[in-house]
């Protein structure tokens, strides 16, 4: 099979729908544990920085490092995996995440913690890039949009539920316990992958030159990559420092942060499934709505969120908007290049994680001088996302 042939779905070859959905669930759990691992420090910056004697801005490197590494590992692992069975690749990567998180729980210093975070980045990039198009191979075609919503619900749910739960556990038992718990979760995902996911021989091979070629030749892919960069950088520029935002602007004490992020999480889960159902048929319109909602929520917090009530309302709106980001952007990329799903996914994951890292890095410089500044700068980038998507009418989507 050449690099330009379309992968053939494995469903319809004797596998039952139930087994297909069990496989989807296992992949979802894997993505959830991966993304929770990557983003867990968001809710734990203050206690980690305090114990390991670094500032909140420096502690933000716990998000920056894996983001940068994931951006590089996404295309390299996708290409390097060649014809290796995708189930084996996913199992190795999720096992590495479990080990790295357990190592983080026992780290003696910040430098060692960053090494563990480096390994998290390797796994996140490779796993997500390969898993991104698996819905097409696990369930019948008519169920693909729903399966994608479920799989990418693992991404958004990690941001909006995994992180708050980890923050709550960290507040109750210490941040080391939170890292250990996510490590155990990743090992549980490993068991589920081995037991529930069928063998997935590589349907096609990808070469490195194919990736820039896809960017050059496909306008819709270029718009998708640009939108991912602007939207994710803007979001994480602010969200990485949501804890100081809630404390400094809305006046909440540190003990209520985890509960507030759980509220944000519930809103995000709703946003994921609403956006997933709409993106399947109206992905451009869905992304426009998401960008407008996110920009408004972030920009208004310093103005209308200075009290508890306003802060909670805008946090819920923020969660609703961001909940639909991952599934909508991934849907855009797959519609832009239906004949090259893994290549499109690797470009998406590359830019998504690079943007997480850049957002956290830029926010780290800004937040030490102005907590409101991270919100306004983040909102400005998200507004540019709406401009990019709104001007893409000529970009062809399947």
Keyword list:
398 residues, Growth Hormone, Chain: A, globular
Quick structural gist:
This protein has helices spanning 17-39, 45-52, 56-59, 61-80, 86-105, 110-131, 135-138, 144-173, 175-196, 210-217, 219-239, 242-248, 257-304, 308-323, 325-336, 341-367, 371-390.
Structure description:
The protein has 398 residues and is an all-alpha fold. It has one domain (17-390): Growth Hormone, Chain: A, CATH 1.20.1250.20. 78% of the residues lie in helices and 0% in strands. It has 17 helices and no strands. α4 (61-80) packs across α6 and α4 (61-80) runs antiparallel to α16 (341-367). The protein is globular, with a radius of gyration of 20 Å. The two termini are 22 Å apart. The relative contact order is 0.17. Residues 1-14 have low confidence and may be disordered.
Summarize the topology:
Blueprint: H1 17-39, H2 45-52, H3 56-59, H4 61-80, H5 86-105, H6 110-131, H7 135-138, H8 144-173, H9 175-196, H10 210-217, H11 219-239, H12 242-248, H13 257-304, H14 308-323, H15 325-336, H16 341-367, H17 371-390
Helix pairs in contact: 1-5, 1-6, 1-8, 1-9, 4-6, 4-16, 5-6, 5-9, 6-16, 8-9, 8-13, 8-15, 11-15, 11-16, 11-17, 13-14, 13-15, 13-17, 15-16, 16-17
């Amino acid at each position: 099979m050449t690099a330009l042939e379309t992968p053939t779905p494995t469903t319809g070859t004797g596998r039952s729908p139930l087994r297909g959905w069990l496989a989807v669930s296992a992949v979802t759990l894997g993505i959830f544990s991966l993304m929770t691992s990557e983003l867990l420090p968001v809710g734990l910056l203050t206690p980690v920085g305090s114990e390991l004697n670094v500032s909140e801005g420096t502690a933000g490197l716990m998000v920056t490092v894996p983001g940068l590494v994931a951006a590089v590992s996404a295309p390299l692992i996708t290409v390097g995996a060649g014809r290796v069975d995708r189930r084996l690749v996913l199992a190795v990567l999720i096992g590495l995440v479990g080990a790295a998180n357990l190592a983080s729980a026992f780290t003696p210093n910040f430098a060692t913690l960053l090494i563990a975070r480096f390994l998290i980045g390797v796994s996140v990039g490779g796993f997500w890039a390969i898993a991104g198009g698996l819905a097409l191979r696990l369930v019948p075609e008519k169920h693909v949009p729903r399966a994608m919503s479920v799989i990418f619900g693992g991404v958004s749910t990690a941001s909006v539920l995994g992180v708050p739960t980890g923050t709550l556990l960290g507040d109750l038992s210490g941040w080391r316990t939170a890292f250990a718990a996510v490590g155990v979760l990743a090992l549980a995902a490993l068991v589920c992958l081995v037991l529930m996911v069928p063998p997935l021989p590589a349907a096609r091979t990808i070469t490195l030159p194919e990736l820039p070629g896809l960017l050059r030749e496909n306008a819709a892919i270029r718009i998708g990559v640009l939108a991912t960069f602007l939207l994710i950088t803007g979001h994480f520029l602010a969200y990485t420092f949501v804890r100081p935002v809630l404390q400094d602007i809305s006046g909440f004490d540190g003990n209520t942060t985890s509960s507030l992020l759980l509220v944000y999480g519930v809103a995000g889960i709703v946003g994921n499934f609403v956006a997933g159902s709409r993106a399947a048929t109206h992905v451009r319109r869905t992304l426009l709505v998401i960008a407008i909602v996110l920009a408004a929520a972030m920009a208004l917090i310093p103005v209308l969120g200075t009290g508890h009530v306003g802060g909670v309302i805008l946090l819920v709106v923020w969660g609703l908007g961001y909940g639909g980001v991952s599934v909508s952007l991934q849907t855009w990329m797959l519609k832009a290049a239906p004949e090259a799903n893994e290549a499109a996914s690797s470009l998406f994951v590359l830019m998504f994680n690079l943007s997480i890292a850049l957002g956290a890095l830029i926010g780290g410089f800004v937040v030490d001088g102005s907590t409101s500044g991270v919100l306004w700068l983040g909102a400005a980038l998200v507004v540019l996302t709406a401009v990019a998507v709104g001007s893409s009418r000529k970009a062809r989507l399947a």
